[in-house]
Amino acid sequence: MDLLKQCQQWFEQDEAQKVIDTLEAIPAEERTPELDSELAKAYIAVAHIGEREPFEKALELLAPHEEHFAEDHCWNYRIASAYYFLDEEGPALRYFEKALKARPGDKDTQEYIDDCRRRLSLPRFEKNFRERTQEGWAAFSQIEAELRQIIDTDETHQRGEELVEKCGNALKTALRDTSFELGFNGEKYELILSPEGLRSRLFPLVYFQKQAPESVLEHWNIWVGRQPCEGFELRAGEIEVRADDVQMWAEETEDHQVSLVLYCEKLTPILKEDTDKVWWALSMLVDQTIGEVSAIAFVAGFDVYAQPKDEPAKLLSELPELLQSMGLSLWRDGSDYLENSYLAYELELVEDPEADWRLDVYTGSCRLPVLINDYLTARSDMVDEYHKDGIAAGFLLYPLSGFTGEERVKAILDFRDNLRDAILRDAGEEAVTFLGGATGLYCGYLDFIAWDLPAVLTAAQAFFEGSDLPYAHFHAFRRDVGGVPLLDEKEPEPDIHEETGSLLSAEDIAMLESFDEGTSGYFWRMLQ
Fold first, then answer.
1. How far is residue 448's CA from residue 383's CA, in Å, rounded to a whole number?
2. pTM for the complete prediction?
3. pLDDT of 182
4. Strand runs (DSSP E) across 256-372, as ranges?
5. Neighbouring-strand partners of residue 474
């Protein structure tokens, strides 16, 4: 019997484990995409709700074959199911929609799509990031003395992998995928959490950093972003490279950043063989020269050249002085940078009152522009990344029709500030980080990252209920889901006619009675 047909028979007999045992015995490189897909189906079938490993294994098997199965219902349904049971409803929704397109009208797929949208409208987590952070620091506290002991005694650096594994297992309780470094500066031990060049990752890392318990801070410095290190030397294979070995050409951009062109003669021999390695090495050198947070703030990007430019060059080690000559101060702490990173923006508004929320915005400020850009272009990559760690990114919206008079603009901004202050007071700083706000033609908006969404929405709802607003909503930074009412628009009280005690006047009743022609009349026949 054909192996695929045999697998189908085992599934019909509810013997998915036989599929796993048989297909796992075949070397991975010898399995076809179809066999990998069946094996993934089997892992999903034997998994229990709450387990992660079988669903992660299914993703590992399915992901390499996306191009092969692009329009296949079963493959899209299976990878969507794996994401769904890992509580990653964002990618699950996208693949369920592709599965439905491949098999229009499929009831099960449509039900999953509807459920994903409900869950994404009001994100719910087994553990939100506030809880995960508490558990992460509790786990780190239990092993930090052992980590210090390894750092003190591992003079030949033989226990590096063990050190990283122990620390990584503790941190992933809060952050499933984070890069970090451990060390000792001569006075205190250091844990450096790297955002890997992404501004969006600074926010959860800074939040995590701020929640570090005193018992940990007694022995450890917790940094977000690699710190500047003068004279830092990087080894790429047998090659040793310093910032003084890298030539640099810098061009200032319109938004007060620099775009760099870098050339390093020492790295040129491996540029063709392993381009990624060279880019990583130069990125690391930039981070160590000005600090990783400053690199995020001030470096718009860089190109790597195989030959030096004809123009006069500076050395990469001179980058700090170059930035300072532009009036820019280097950032050492990620928290300080985020507090001072608001960007004002203006948009071309949409005047249609039926358009999606936020499309009426004409001005605003934000500390995480990628969220605004993703929402306006109907992308959700950033919120999907946050969702993995129990983080919700969204905004509160409310109508501005009641704000009138000469002081209208001030009243709108004061109301938004009062809403923010009320949430901070009632939910606490441990529940939320505000990103900015926006003013639209019809609505006002307050943007935030929620580490504990229920606490934020409870506080917001209490504030709205004490206002004169007709309605207010929470909306995730997603265009493909609806909002969640926090204050329902009140229906106007009906007018009751005193003489009849009814919604109908005496004239209305007389008119309706005149239509009554008995059992032979039009209305009786329609009723029947």
1. 12
2. 0.85
3. 93
4. 258-263, 299-304, 314-315, 343-346, 361-366
5. 396, 484
Residue 293 structure tokens: 């947070």
Q: How far apart are CA 202 and CA 53, in angstroms?
A: 28
**In this structure, how many other beta carbons lie within 10 angstroms of the beta carbon of residue 39?**
24
Q: Which two tokens stand for residue 242?
A: 């310093």
d(CA 445, CA 361) in angstroms, rounded, equals: 9
Angle, helix 33-46 to helix 16-24, in steps of 10 degrees: 140
**Of 359, 352, 345, which is closest to residue 437 (Cα–Cα)?**
345
Which strand (E) or helix (H) includes residue 486? strand 484-487
Domains of the chain, by residue range, sit at 3-121, 129-224, 233-331, 342-487, 493-528
Q: State how far the Cα of 345 lies from the Cα of 362, in Å rounded to an integer.
A: 8
- Token pair listed for 30: 């010898």
Q: Are 3-121 and 342-487 the same fold in CATH?
A: no
Helix residue ranges per DSSP H, 195-236? 199-210, 214-217
The rounded distance, in Å, linking the Cα atoms of 518 and 131 is 69
Query: What would be the CATH architecture of the domain defined by 3-121?
Result: Alpha Horseshoe (1.25)
Tens of pLDDT, residues 457-488: 999 999 999 999 999 999 999 998 999 999 97
The number of beta carbons lying within 10 Å of the beta carbon of residue 19 is: 24
The tokens for 3 are 């192996």
> Tokens 């484990």 label which residue?
17
d(CA 290, CA 246): 14
Contact partners, residue 169, CB within 8 Å, separation at least 6: 139
Greatest alpha-carbon pair distance for the chain in Å reads 104
Query: What digits encode the pLDDT tens for the residues 248-305?
Result: 999 988 888 999 999 999 888 888 888 888 898 999 999 999 999 999 999 998 999 9
Supply 413's token pair.
């901004």
Cβ neighbourhood burial of 145 (10 Å; 0-12, 13-18, 19+): exposed
DSSP for 101-169, please give it: HHSTT-HHHHHHHHHHHHHHHS---SS-HHHHHHHHHHHHHHHHHHHHHHHHH-TT---HHHHHHHHHH
463-467 long-range contacts (CB < 8 A, ≥24 apart) are 463/418, 463/419, 463/422, 463/423, 463/426, 464/398, 467/415
| Closest to 381 in 3D by CA, of 481, 483, 477, 482 | 477
Report the amino acid identity of residue 178.
T
Q: Are 43 and 20 in contact (CB under 8 A)?
A: yes
What pLDDT is stored for residue 154 in this prediction? 86
Cβ atoms of 191 and 226 closer than 8 Å: no
When computed from its CA atoms, the radius of gyration of the chain, rounded to whole angstroms, is 30
Closest to 262 (Cα-Cα) out of 201, 193, 317, 210: 317
Distance of CA 496 to the CA centre of its chain: 51
Integer Cα distance of 205 and 195 in angstroms: 7
Short-list 383, 380, 346, 386, CA closest to 366: 346
Residue range 342-487 forms a domain whose CATH class is alpha beta
Positive/negative CA dihedral, 55, 57, 133, 226: negative
Q: Residue 1's pLDDT is what?
A: 57
